[in-house]
Design brief:
Layout lengths: L12 E7 L6 E11 L3 E5 L6 E5 L3 E6 L1 H4 L2
Antiparallel strand pairs: 1-2, 1-5, 2-3, 3-4
Amino acid sequence: MAGETPEAWVGTEVTLHLWKSDGLGTEPCGAVLRGISTLGVTVEIPRQHELTFYPWSTLREITPHQNHAKK
C-alpha cells in the first residue's frame, strides 16, 4: 500500500470524492479508474458502462477500494 500512486490503480475500483455543485463538501462515486493525466481522470462507472472524464478541478481525492489497498 505505501508508496503507491494513482497511476498504479488504473484498472482497479476506486472511490472518487467529487466536489458538490454548491462547493460545500464532496460526494463519493465508485468507479473503475481507466486513465489518469495532467488534465484529470477517466473512469468507468459500473452501472453505466460508459467512460466519464473528470477534470482535477471537480475532484477532491481518489482512494483505492480496500481490497486493492491491502496488497
